[in-house]
TrEMBL record, chain A:
Places the protein is found: Cell membrane
GO cellular component term, pick one: plasma membrane
InterPro entries according to UniProt: ABC_transp_permease (IPR001851), BCAA_transport_permease (IPR052157), LivM-like (IPR043428)
Any GO MF annotation of the entry: branched-chain amino acid transmembrane transporter activity
GO biological process, one term: amino acid transport
Membrane-crossing segments per the record: 12-35, 42-62, 68-87, 99-118, 146-163, 191-210, 230-252, 259-280, 314-333, 340-368, 388-407, 414-435, 447-474, 508-527, 533-554, 561-577, 583-606
Pfam families from the UniProt entry: BPD_transp_2 (PF02653)
Top-rank taxon: Bacteria
Name of the protein in question: Branched-chain amino acid transport system permease protein LivM
Membrane topology: Multi-pass membrane protein
TrEMBL record, chain B:
Record organism: Candidatus Defluviicoccus seviourii
Keyword ATP-binding part of the UniProt annotation: yes
One Pfam family in the UniProt entry: ABC_tran
UniProt key word Nucleotide-binding: yes
Sequence similarity: Belongs to the ABC transporter superfamily.
Name the record gives this protein: Leucine/isoleucine/valine transporter subunit ATP-binding component of ABC superfamily
Gene that encodes it: livF
């Protein structure tokens, strides 16, 4: 019994920083409708800044608490600067581009942290006055954890008073419900947005700072916490601070007890709880009805039509050009070209999911990685030949997409997107933790193609053939009745259902098709690299896909091809010049979002259309 | 407060909704903007306060060009807007809704307080602490007007305030709007309810398919039956 109580208290203590981060994320989303990926970066910066301030500037002995508060305030100021200099420029852009911009910030902060603090873990001091442990029910319980347990409810209470008792809080709640109406009553949105962002960043910074005495500060904590915070927000309900509080406790307790009871299935447990909550209450425990992510720009997009003769010729010329590439290129160039084609295929499958089916995924890496692991496991455990492994990879990816999709089509908008991310993260941790089967972070080696396909040239052609075939099939689907059904559901669920389309069924299959094709890409990737590591399931792969699709223009047929080409080339070239390629890519992403809010192909495509129309009118 | 609208055009995607709409609202005057469902009344009002993104033309408030000013600034300049669908903050209480609309007193415009508004709309007084989502449609209509009045506007645009309300409530509402008129507010009233428009309007503008088709005094409008038959009869 005593053990259960202690473990429960442990859970409560770890819920504190999770709550601080999730509350900030939720408040910012509620008012600005921005899913702030950079929120994890604020958390990480809070931790690093606290470390520096406590260890360095203020001196270790007396400066702990001022250091913690100063770190949180510094992060709040940074958040305010970010809002004023970047986000303010892109509030008119589609939500997904805003997301992309905040992810650019994540990349920049990751490299800045490496530059400033280096790659090694940093260990903070104990909190003065709260060192050591107290005796509780015969167990030793850290004093500092008692402080953390109290911190959560204190912050919740403070936020409650702030939102109920101050005019600022009432304005924030009004703007969360109806931004336009608040503006029509004279509420200055700009000022409100900035202040909300400052508050959210402060909470995240504080969350990072207060865990300094508890855990080492390291440079991957940004993505770890943001994924957990997404899960919390999905369970608790977007825009609800109380929901975030409840959900962070649920999540932290599941972790606390899961680790002692079944360490291997903790994540599965988390996922089960989330699934149950979402199936019963699709908007989370205390969420509002719907927050839809607009995939398009708000202006009615012209429907996707079969591409023009000219565009088709371009694609055809591209394929032909690739076909003669092995004549002039060496093995390195061929392997780069093969990798780019694989990511073109990956991007096409994601565009099919997002642009055609209208389901935004933050976790498309799950399908890519399942494809890769499906093939690798088949080879490792069954000694199967490449052809069979290839099918196994596609099968596993399709199966995974069917399972994930079953849950996802019950949601829409931001909730769906966050759920996909959570599933991908679960797949990642299964691969990472299940040493016996997946080899954990040692990965699976020796995933080589069959003898006939072993030469880089043959594998290049194989990839080209598969990618081209996949492209043709997906195009075929887009302009088949099934594709029309998908687009109907994307544009209006109500109308689609009213004319007899089984929305869930159609979207479910759409999800599975997209997953299967991403699996094809993943399988090819495994054979190209000859090995599989958990990285193929990790957040950066999902985000790479998002960047490619959005850069290319989500509603453009050839968008993902251009996006994947440009982005992957950029990545490969930059990585060969500098270790800090994330920093450069982050800056480029932000620059592109600010310059081309419709995507590259969208931007030039629209201008091309106008030009063609003018020419036609002149003649 | 004078409001002038010159050749206002509004678009939704590639579709044009308003075609060169011009209106004039003089100080202390009530102009009724009449038209059938979908004629462009609401879009006209929304475009004036900047809630329609794609628009062209010129909107001038007391000599100041506010065409592309942010919505909040237009409200701060003294132009109050009461939307058609009420857009009450349902998660807030009645009193909190009023608080959102509050602005400092303005010279040349009546200054409202929560108390004086409760006097104008007696029903609201007892509901002060109720969540606004739980009050009746008529009460919500009173609240949405009261909320805009908290900003002490010098000119007011009302979008179909009588829509969906019982006749008795419409009568109450008409009295309240008349009181506002007597206090010197300029009012642009978009309506389908001819009875209400006749009772309080000084001049009439009729909009059809996004174009102004008639402008004149209430007397001119009343003397020519063909006008209302051509543009308003269903």
């Amino acid at each position: 019994m005593a053990f259960v109580v202690i473990q429960f208290l442990n859970g409560l203590a770890s819920a504190a920083d999770l709550f601080l981060v999730s509350a900030g994320l939720s408040i910012i989303f509620g008012v600005t409708r921005i899913v702030n990926f950079a929120h994890g970066s604020f958390y990480m910066l809070g931790a690093y800044l606290a470390f520096t301030l406590v260890e360095g500037v203020f001196g270790p002995a007396f400066g702990f608490w001022p250091g913690i508060v100063a770190a949180a305030i510094a992060v709040a100021v940074l958040g305010g600067l970010l809002e004023v200099t970047l986000l303010r420029r892109i509030y008119q852009a589609p939500e997904l581009f805003q997301l992309l911009a905040t992810f650019g910030v994540v990349l920049i902060v990751q490299d800045l942290v490496l530059l400033v603090w280096g790659p090694e873990d940093r260990i903070g001091p104990r909190a003065p006055g709260l060192e050591g442990a107290v005796s509780l029910l015969g167990h030793q319980f850290p004093r500092y954890d008692l402080f953390l347990i109290a911190l959560g409810p204190i912050v919740l209470g403070a936020l409650f008073l702030l939102f109920r008792r101050t005019r600022w809080g009432i304005l924030v709640r009004a703007a969360t419900q109806d931004r336009e109406m608040a503006a029509a009553l004279g509420v200055n949105e700009r000022w409100l947005f900035t202040s909300v962002f400052v508050l959210g960043a402060f909470l995240a910074g504080l969350g990072g700072a207060v865990q300094l005495p508890r855990e080492a500060v390291h440079h991957t904590m940004d993505l770890e916490i943001i994924v957990e915070a997404f899960v919390v927000v999905v369970i608790g309900g977007l825009g609800s601070v109380t929901g975030a509080f409840l959900a962070s406790i649920i999540l932290a307790e599941l972790n606390a007890f899961g680790i002692v009871i079944f360490p291997e299935v903790t994540l599965v447990l988390v996922f089960l709880v989330m699934a149950v909550v979402l199936v019963i209450r699709p908007t989370g425990l205390l969420g509002r009805p719907e927050f839809a992510i607009r995939a398009a720009s708000g202006v009615a997009e012209p429907p996707i039509t079969p591409q023009s003769e000219a565009a088709r010729n371009w694609v055809f010329a591209g394929v032909l050009g690739l076909a003669v590439l092995p004549v002039v290129a060496d093995a390195y160039v061929l392997s780069v070209a093969t990798e780019i084609m694989i990511f073109v295929l990956f991007a096409i499958s994601l565009q099919f999911l997002m642009g055609i089916s209208g389901m935004v995924s933050f976790g498309h890496a799950a399908s890519f990685g399942l494809g890769a692991y499906g093939a690798a496991l088949m080879i490792k455990h069954a000694g199967a030949p490449m052809e069979l492994a290839f099918l196994a990879g596609i099968g596993l990816a399709a199966l995974g997409a069917l399972v994930i999709g079953w849950f996802c089509v019950r949601l829409s908008g931001v909730y769906l997107a966050m759920l996909t991310l959570a599933f991908a993260q679960i797949a990642w941790s299964v691969a990472f933790q299940w040493y016996g089967v997946t080899g954990g972070d040692n990965g699976i080696l020796g995933v080589w193609p069959a003898a006939w396909a072993a030469s880089p040239i043959v594998f290049f052609y194989l990839t080209l053939a598969v990618t081209t075939l996949a492209l043709v099939i997906l195009r075929r689907i887009i302009f088949a009745p099934f594709g029309f059904g998908l687009r109907a559901c994307r544009d209006s669920v109500l109308r689609a259902e009213a004319i007899g389309i089984d929305r869930r069924q159609v979207q479910w299959f759409g999800f599975a098709v997209a997953g299967a094709f991403a699996g094809v890409a993943g399988t090819l990737y495994a054979f190209l690299k000859g090995s599989v590591f958990p990285d193929v399931l990790a957040v950066p792969v999902s985000v790479d896909g998002l960047v490619m699709v959005l850069l290319g223009g989500i509603q453009r047929l050839n968008g993902p091809i251009v996006g994947a080409l440009v982005y992957k080339l950029l990545q490969i070239v930059l990585a060969s010049y500098t270790d800090y390629w994330r920093l450069v890519i982050g800056v480029i992403i932000i620059g592109l979002v600010v310059a081309f809010p419709q995507g590259i192909v969208g931007f030039f495509g629209t201008r091309l259309d106008t030009l063609l129309m003018q020419r036609r009118n002149n003649s | 407060m004078r409001l002038e609208v010159h050749k206002l055009c509004a678009f939704c995607g590639r579709a044009q909704i308003l075609f060169d709409v011009s209106l004039k609202l003089e100080r202390g005057e009530v102009v009724a903007l009449l038209g059938r469902n979908g004629a462009g009344k609401s879009t006209t009002l929304k475009s004036i306060v900047g809630l329609v993104e794609q628009r062209s033309g010129r909107v001038v408030l007391d000599g100041r060009d506010i065409t592309y000013a942010p919505t909040a600034q237009i409200a701060r300049a003294g132009l109050g807007y009461v939307p058609e669908d009420r857009r009450i903050f349902t998660e807030l209480t009645v009193a909190e809704n009023l608080l959102v609309g509050r602005q400092p007193p303005r010279s040349g415009a009546p200054a409202w307080t929560e108390k004086s508004l409760f006097h104008l709309f007696p029903n609201l007084a007892e509901l002060s602490d109720r969540p606004a989502g739980e009050i009746s449609g008529g009460e919500q209509q009173m609240l949405t007007i009261a909320r805009t009045l908290m900003g002490n506007p010098a000119a007011l645009m009302l979008d179909e305030p009588s829509e969906g309300l019982a006749p008795l409530i419409v009568e109450q509402l008409g009295k309240a709007i008349l009181t506002l008129k007597q206090q010197g507010l300029s009012i642009l009233l978009s309506e389908q309810n001819l009875h209400l428009a006749r009772a309080i309007g000084d001049r009439v503008s009729i909009i059809e398919k996004g174009r102004i088709r008639f402008e004149g005094t209430m007397a001119e409008f009343g003397s020519d039956q063909t006008i209302s038959r051509t543009f308003l009869a269903v």
